[in-house]
Write a structure and sequence with these properties.
elongated; Serine/threonine kinase-like domain-containing protein STKLD1; about 75% helix; serine/threonine-protein kinase; mainly alpha
Length: about 325
């Protein structure tokens, strides 16, 4: 009631957010988490020029969403909340600390299909791409933005294809920049898989993207989620193009077949990884040159082992 009575007074809103933070930290605010979220985002939008209020508000929203996740509380965030966060992004597009917080928030809320739909509606993709271009060095921002891109691109709902196509070179740049950082590489590979799935890559992008995904697998073979995403992304590319298939077996740093065999031996006890490796193998066998390479590297032994361990594969 206090916040609603003094919307226009920045200091009143800032003090109120501090008080709300103490309730949230004490975990005594569970029934009111959604109400708090709406009040905080409205205060942020009303006083968008105040950097401190934006930082404090975002930090508290992160705490609220984390608590809701822990407690299995469903937060049905409406378009007002997502548009308020986007308003913050646009007003403070140069502030790295704040953007890091906001992008983490966007990633958390984009996991909900309703929120993802609202983010698409308010036009968040160009903002995400701009942030990535400007802060390519920032691991946290890259991780969060790629996570949001994946959520938006993987959805079956219609989305502007031209807009998603513009995300391909930016996502590839993130992957190239952070190849040795599995934490960032994972969501970047997820985003590239979703973009490939939606048919957003041009013919000129097939070969370099295949090489980049192979590098990601080569440098992070121990990460099961990354292996799964890379296999699905490569499968999508091989489905589209023989150029990708040839690059897969003739990469200058070593054949993709060896990488797949290594990935299997590292994760043979993970059914999801094995399933995605099988999806990739199914795409590999449509090309004669790839089949010849598979035979020369005794890939049939691996296939037989998979069949014996997972009869339904």
């Amino acid at each position: 009631e206090f916040m609603q009575a003094f919307w226009d007074i920045e200091e009143a809103q800032a003090k109120a957010i501090q008080h709300l933070a103490s309730f949230v930290r004490e975990k005594s605010a569970s029934p009111y988490l959604l109400t708090f979220t709406e009040l905080i985002t409205f205060a942020m939008k009303t006083h968008v020029d105040s950097l401190k209020l934006q930082v404090d508000g975002c930090s508290l929203l992160l705490e609220i969403l984390s608590q809701a996740l822990e407690q299995d509380v469903v937060m049905a965030l409406d378009e007002k909340v997502t548009s308020s966060l986007l308003h913050t992004v646009r007003k403070h597009s140069e502030n790295e600390e704040l953007l890091s917080l906001v992008c983490t928030l966007l990633m958390m809320i984009s996991a909900s299909e309703v929120a993802a739909k609202n983010l698409r509606k308010v036009g968040v993709i160009p903002d995400l791409l701009s942030i990535l271009r400007n802060f390519l060095h920032n691991e946290k921002i890259c991780l969060s933005c790629c996570g949001v891109l994946w959520s938006l691109a993987v959805s079956e709902n219609n989305i502007d294809r031209a807009l998603l196509k513009s995300a391909v070179p930016v996502t590839s740049a993130v992957l190239q920049e952070h190849l040795q950082n599995g934490t960032v590489t994972e969501p970047a590979c997820s985003a590239l898989w979703a973009l490939a799935l939606q048919g957003c890559l041009t013919e000129n992008e097939y070969e370099p993207t295949t090489a980049l995904l192979l590098d990601a697998l080569r440098m992070n073979p121990e990460r099961p989620v990354l292996v799964k995403n890379v296999c699905l992304a490569l499968a999508s590319l091989l489905r589209l193009s023989e150029i990708s298939a040839l690059r897969f077996i003739m990469d200058s740093k070593g054949s993709g077949i060896n990488l797949i065999k290594e990935a299997y031996h590292l994760h043979f006890d993970d059914p999801e990884v094995v399933e995605n490796i099988c999806v990739l193998i199914n795409e590999m066998v449509q090309y004669d040159d790839v089949v010849l390479d598979m035979l020369s590297q005794k890939m049939e032994e691996l296939v037989s082992e998979i069949k014996s361990r997972f009869p339904s594969s």
